Amino acid sequence: MHSNIKIALFIFGLAFAKAYAQEPTSSSYSFTLEQAIEHGLENNYQAINAQRDIAKALKQKWETTATGLPQINSSVNYQNQLKQPITPLPGEIAGGAPGTFVPVIFGPKQSMNLTATLTQLIFDGSYLVALEASKTFLDFSENANNKTRLEVRKGIINAYGGVLLTQENIQIITKNRDALQKNLDEVTKIFENGLTEEEDVEQLQITLAQLNNQLNSATRQQEIAMDMLKLAIGIELGTPVVLNDNLESLAMGNIDPSVTDKSIEVENTVDYLIAYNFTQQRRLEYKLEKAKGLPTVSGFVNYGIQTFDNDFAFFNRDQQWFQQSIAGVSINVPIFSSMGRKAAQDRTKIAWDQAETDLTRTMEEIRLNYETAVNNYQTAIDNYMTSKDNLALAERIENKNTIKFREGIASSFDLRQAQTQLYNTQAQLLNSMFQVITEKANLETILNTPNYTTQN
Fold first, then answer.
1. How far is Cα 117 from Cα 97, in angstroms, rounded to an integer?
2. CB neighbours (10 Å) of residue 321?
3. Which pTM value belongs to this model?
4. pLDDT tens readout for residues 311-350
């Protein structure tokens, strides 16, 4: 009994296990679902890092741009020839005998030069492609951030609903247990007076033991669900949190059949935009390989001063420094690569074609996911309405069997069967309310709905 609730909690727990968050310690928190979403979008780890990815993309864009702007570098070179090279000169120069040589040292023992060089990229096809690629990467980071925010939002809704599910499940089980305990006490007294069979007591004892086990399990589930919610919205696990909404009001607020009437604009969905970014990256890779066959032109100007002496006297005021300067242009023209560049171009063109095919597949998957989400959402609404009607019927059946049992008309087995049916119907109603909330969140995620909305 109540297996649907356990399965629902397990599924959303696995789906949201990676959504961690951070927040300064506070004494306590109190949230509606909308407030929890707002808090989580600011403090969830994934949301924070997604924002940082955008900041990184902006820095990378400027980093790429800067490579085509003027660059200035300077250098300082100092040399001390510990053993100066000897140059032999004919001895006749110094009055020596022909055929002899005189060792001579040319140049000073120590020297220093200071140089500053300005370089400027004049033309490079790869640089132009890199500029375009940095803009595409920024777009991708922004779309990835939107995707993260949508998933965080959906995860918080699931976690918040999961806590309410466990809380209300505990309340129902507790109420059922108390009512059953009262019945058991009455039947036990009747049995002690010899007016009923022992089996009637045993049947109620079996049901009571099952309810106690379910209550213990539900209590543990509530603790786990609350911790998941705290992690999702960025609160330390030991911090008390109070939820201001209840499951039924959220379910009713999320019943909006008009949502299913919306036609999805695939080109505006975040999954399409991310897939489109991927195709642009492959296009730019192909464009880059083609640009590698173009000439590159760069220019430079440098200016420097140098001095020399046999002693280290370079910082003396009267030390003489000599100027030097060079300007130039460098042109690099690719001529022949043994068909290597052509192979690279063909490879990147194939990769681009693959990305375009994946984009088409993504569009069809989005349409399919939307149709599935609409169906699941409508089914969840139908199940909720049916479960409400079934609960009223199950309550009447259980009440009738209780009266019949007390009057000796119905057996303890009939009563236990009616009670089990009631408990299962209660669990189905809770689970159907939870499904309405989560399926609406899933549908809104596909539709790129950034804010939490309900119907009054």
1. 50
2. 13
3. 0.78
4. 888 888 888 899 999 999 999 999 988 889 899 999 999 9
